[in-house]
Amino acid sequence: MLKALIRTALCAVVPAALLMAAPGEIALAESAGWSPMWSPLMPVILSVYAALTAGIASVRPDIRSAKIGAAFSMTVAVSAQVTAHLLSADYMSVSPGLVVAVSAIPPVVAGHLLHMAASVATPQTATGAPESTAPVSEPSETQNGAQASAQRAPCTSFVPLADLVATIPSDSRPDICADTWSIADLLATFPATEADTAMGDLGQVATGADNGRPDADTIRAAIAVLSASGRTVTGEDLAAHFGVSARTGRRYLSKATAGVV
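The structure assignment produced for this chain is given below.
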């Protein structure tokens, strides 16, 4: 309802105000030296200028020139009406200053409109500042390579399993794929050292057990269980029981038999 009321008021008041202001602006143009043929263009210039500056200022508040133009157009329109009526009532006469001021209106308005048109053509960013059209330099191959290397660089606190396997002599490696090694298989390949004991046993930290390997009593107990049926226990049986490779199972069997783990 309110929008309809405002729309009706605009349609009634704006045309009426422009029609009432037109005679004074025409008379002012004639007093500045324009002929009756060109004087009627003065109301058109001032009206269109006021409408454009007000519209641009509301749509693009970042264009300061539009706000200045809106205020300037209102000042010129009011001054033109007051001056025209003072001249018609013989309260003042035409002076050189008045002629200069009225004569400057068309070129000033045209130049300002062209300036605002160029400002409107500049895209607006999210922050309200004009978007920069400067070319963006592409990163060099060296920078791309450095960034890719930084993204691919592994954590230096860990060593891949394949690198650890590569340090084991080939004749000591189980005949299985390195990617399928368990922690117990890997730790069983390296004999315990005094450094391991001083550090709190590396295997115990990694697996929560004594280097991931069962002790002699555990192996003997497993052999007793597996041989309960009367068959001879092999390294492969121990490997299946403890979930390690066949080679580690055979090592468990030999160490258990010798009483050393």
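Interim note for the steering committee: Residues 161-258 form one domain. The chain is about 65% helix and 0% strand.
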